[in-house]
Amino acid sequence: MVTSNYFPAGHKIRIEVSSSNFPRFDRNLNTGGNNYDEAKGIVVENKIHHSKQYPSVIKLPFIKK
Q: How many CB atoms lie within 10 A of CB 63?
């Protein structure tokens, strides 16, 4: 799915991190097993590392107007 958004100067966006987006995408039970055969999932904690030792980056394409 290709899409785009226009963000005016100074505009802010929010990024949400999730293990799953069911039913939009296939479920993720966070077990490491076969998601089609598993019946129960486990609750997990997602972490975003943001230090010199564990840098994180989100690259968004930029197209000049």
A: 6
| Number of other residues whose CB lies within 10 A of the CB of residue 19 | 15
Decide if 44 contacts 32 (C-beta within 8 A): no
Instruction: Identify whether 65 is part of a domain.
Output: no
Instruction: Give the separation between CA 7 and CA 4, rounded to whole angstroms.
Output: 10
* 47 assigned to some structural domain: yes
If one counts the domains in the chain, the total is 1
pLDDT in tens, 2-39: 778 888 889 998 888 887 777 887 778 888 888 788 88
